[in-house]
Write a structure and sequence with these properties.
The complex is a heterodimer of chains A (310) and B (391). Chain A contains 10 helices and 9 strands. Chain A is an alpha+beta fold and 310 residues long. Chain A has a domain at 33-45 and 108-294: Alpha-Beta Plaits (2-Layer Sandwich), CATH 3.30.70.20. In chain A, the strands form 4 sheets. In chain A, strands 8-1-9 form a 3-stranded mixed β-sheet. Chain A is globular, with a radius of gyration of 28 Å. Chain B has 391 residues and is mainly α. The model of chain B is unreliable at 384-391 (pLDDT under 50). Chain B is 69% helix and 0% strand. The longest helix of chain B is centred in the middle third of the chain and has 38 residues, at 162-199. Chain B is globular and about 70 Å long. The chains are: A alpha+beta (310), B mainly alpha (391). The interface between A and B is large, with 82 and 83 residues. The complex binds iron/sulfur cluster (3 copies). Chain A: [4Fe-4S] cluster 2 binds at residues 59, 171, 174, 187. Chain A: Residues 291-310 are annotated as: Disordered. Chain A: Residues 40-70, 100-131, 133-162 form the 4Fe-4S ferredoxin-type domain. Chain A: It holds the Pfam family Fer4_11.
Chain lengths: 310, 391
């Protein structure tokens, strides 16, 4: 009997597992992600940034964000955010090494070409604008599951932890504010040194390459965001290594695309689940027939016993 | 009349009630003051034990019904049918716990109805698949349990609601005929969402340590759910043989025989994958992550190895020990994927806060409480005349 059980079991495991096990192998052959021609983004040149934080102030102003007072600022006179959080969509940080070398760096949403946050969101509250590729958020749909936070390779979406009715906060390229009103995001609008500029991705990428080519000693060779996680619409050039500037070395494949490929391989046309159901139903029905054929089910026994009690 | 009319207000009832009350008090705090006020969750660790334990691990521990249904209806031709009901009840309660916790965890819970609005479905999202499958499975579990509830009315001698008895009598046989289709659905759905619970973390990319981050997460989670499910059945039925004074169920030994095969398959995939990705050395490097990997692997492999010996399989005590090892090791694996192996960036750390623990404990206590009451009121446990004893 055990022999038969084992065989049946292996059959089942093979069927239910085959699709799932094959998925990562099949998914590896995914097509590369191409940036949209219409896609817009920002180019941040760390060598030009003077750390004035006008972009931080302007972003808060335009997008109606709260101040983030420093911990010992009892009078709450200063807006002194330490990092991105639910009150701060973009921030300027300073990297300094021992030898007096330093560089500013700006953090905000990278507007990935294939954004993980959008792919993760179960209800479509994180969305990517068709064409321009801006990644934005709709609080009226969001259920607050924070999967977008888990998914984002740059840890960008922030959550209003102290609030009873919280939402997710992140840069949306001023889609509903400055970009709409003036055609340029607030941070790019106010930057006095043009360290951060707005434009189509193609243009920004060409510009970045040009600057590096003209000044190879000044810049790192790499353009951060050109290939990271399938490419981002916000790109960076800098004199310091990106590792020093707090950017993780990231895979060039998009996690979102990989995850979707696996999920789609398993659920393609719903064939596997339906086949599994069909197979299971077939076996189960056959087993039931055999079982009932013997004429003493558990429930029947139950019924008899109680029947005779009366 | 009822077979299991037993005392409900036992001392353990009061202890569980106390935990439930504390837990619900903390849940109240969370709704008034925000999630940040009661938890150590952060933008780096947006998911804590509510997701890692209550949802990702809790539903695996609740897979007894699923695992047993495979044995009974697919492999063995209805042989151990009497065991299924208690397993289904545990599943239902385990999945209800997950549902409850999700509502505690969701920041914007009032928007949760989005899942019922097709215009908002985002089918690329792994979480969407998990949510829909889990909700559907809860309904299926409730339907699978319906016969037990109906029996209670069918067999009542002096029914308080005679109409209900009449109705139950009519529905019962009909339900019995079509139940098999729900049972099969009850096997298909967990196969889908248990594997997807693994897929959930694939999108986290390199934020999850390479020891655990792999495209094989779905199949690993699926098999993991199965052997945890069987281990829980062993655990439960050994425990209830003590608590309810039932004899050690022999069926358990048959189930115990299946577990090592599953575990072996799991371990082979796990190691082959690590080798294939070139991370075997990462797994044995001896750092914090590697130690966590070793504990998890030793518990799983050790528990399964014991079950390969007839000598151990025949002894209730050792079967129990290996079941516990498998449950703990299997759960540890899930924790590793959701929390331990997760490292969003430098500087982020997470350890659950006291209220977080109390909320989870409270929900578990509530679950056990409900289980105890239900089991004592309805014919859930296998019928064993002459083995009735008060708990
Ligand atoms: S950086 Fe993060 S939040 Fe921004 S688009 Fe990419 S995944 Fe989404
Ligand atoms: S928190 Fe909101 S935006 Fe983020 S994944 Fe969940 S539902 Fe989507
Ligand atoms: S684009 Fe707008 S929202 Fe984004 S960082 Fe700049 S100012 Fe802030």
């Amino acid at each position: 009997m055990m022999k038969k059980t084992r065989r049946e079991f292996i059959k089942l495991a093979a069927l239910s597992g085959a699709g799932i096990a094959a998925a990562p192998l099949a998914a590896e052959a995914s097509a590369p992600i191409a940036a949209n021609e219409e896609a817009v983004g920002m180019l941040y040149d760390a060598t030009l940034c003077v750390g004035c934080k006008a972009c931080v102030a302007s972003c808060k102003n335009v997008n109606d964000m709260d101040a983030a007072p420093a911990p010992n600022d009892a009078d709450r006179l200063w807006d002194a955010p330490e990092d991105l959080d639910y009150r701060t969509r973009n921030i300027i940080k300073l990297y300094k090494d021992g030898e007096g070398d330093f560089s500013y760096v700006k953090y905000q949403c990278m507007h990935c070409i294939k954004p993980s946050c959008v792919s993760a969101c179960p209800v479509g509250a994180m969305q990517q604008e068709k064409g321009r590729g801006i990644v934005f958020y709709d609080k009226d749909i969001c259920i607050g599951c924070r999967y977008c936070q888990v998914a984002c390779p740059f840890n960008i979406p922030k959550f209003e932890w102290p609030k009873a009715f919280p939402k997710i906060v992140k840069c949306d390229l001023c889609k509903f504010t400055n970009l709409k009103d003036k055609g340029i995001p607030a941070c790019c609008d106010v930057c006095p040194t043009k360290a951060v500029i707005f434009g189509k991705r193609d243009f920004l990428l060409a510009e970045a390459k040009k600057r590096i080519a003209e000044n190879p000693d000044k810049y790192q060779k790499e353009i951060y965001g050109e290939f990271e996680v399938g490419g981002t619409n916000v790109i960076y050039i800098a004199g310091e290594t990106f590792d020093n500037l707090g950017f993780r070395e990231l895979e060039h494949d998009s996690n979102a695309a990989f995850s979707e490929n696996i999920q789609h391989t398993i659920y393609k046309g719903f064939v596997a689940p339906v086949a599994l159901y069909g197979f299971l139903a077939f076996v189960a029905l056959k087993n039931r027939k055999n079982h009932h054929g013997h004429g003493h089910g558990h429930d029947a026994k139950h019924e008899d016993k109680h029947g005779s009690e009366k | 009349m009822a077979l299991h009319r037993e005392k409900i207000l036992t001392p353990s009832f009061w202890v569980l009630l106390a935990f439930t009350v504390i837990g619900f008090y903390c849940i109240g705090l969370r709704y008034v003051m925000g999630i940040g006020a009661v938890s150590n969750l952060s933008d780096g660790f947006p998911w804590g034990i509510w997701i890692a334990y209550d949802v990702a691990t809790g539903t695996a521990l609740a897979c007894g019904g699923y695992a047993l249904a495979i044995v009974i209806y697919i492999m063995n031709g209805w042989k151990y049918h009497p065991l299924i009901r208690s397993a289904i009840v545990t599943s239902l309660f385990g999945y209800a716990l997950a549902g409850f916790s999700v509502m505690v965890d969701l920041g914007r819970y009032w928007n949760a109805y989005s899942f019922f609005m097709p215009s908002r479905w985002q089918v690329n999202s792994v979480m969407f698949e998990v949510a829909v499958c889990v909700m559907a499975y809860n309904v299926v579990l409730a339907i699978e349990l319906l016969p037990a509830i109906l029996e209670r009315f069918v067999h009542s001698k002096n029914p308080r609601f005679p109409k209900l008895k009449e109705y139950a009598r009519k529905v019962y046989p009909k339900l019995d005929k079509i139940l098999i289709f729900f049972i099969v659905l009850g096997i298909t759905l967990p196969t889908m969402h248990q594997s997807s619970l693994g897929s959930m973390m694939i999108i986290a990319g390199s934020k999850l340590n390479p020891i655990w981050q792999t495209g094989f997460l779905p199949i690993l989670f699926l098999i993991n759910a199965m052997y945890i499910g069987y281990s829980v059945i062993i655990f439960e039925s050994t425990l209830s043989s003590v608590v309810f004074g039932r004899p050690f169920e022999k069926e358990v030994r048959v189930i115990a025989k299946v577990v090592p095969y599953l575990t072996a398959a799991w371990l082979i995939i796990r190691f082959a994958d690590l080798y294939h990705r070139g991370h075997l050395s990462t797994a044995f490097s001896g750092d914090y992550y590697s130690k966590m990997f070793l504990v998890e692997t030793l518990l799983i492999a050790g528990g399964a190895y014991m079950l390969t010996w007839k000598h151990f399989r025949m002894s209730p005590r050792w079967v129990f020990v290996s079941a516990v090892m498998l449950c703990v090791g299997g759960s540890w694996y899930r924790f590793s994927v959701y929390i331990i192996g997760f490292n969003p960036a430098k500087g982020w750390e997470y350890f659950p806060s006291l209220p977080e623990f109390f909320i989870t404990l409270g929900l578990v206590a509530f679950e056990i409480l409900g289980y105890m009451v239900l089991v004592k009121m309805f014919p859930i446990m296998p019928n064993l005349e002459g083995h009735k004893k008060n708990a």
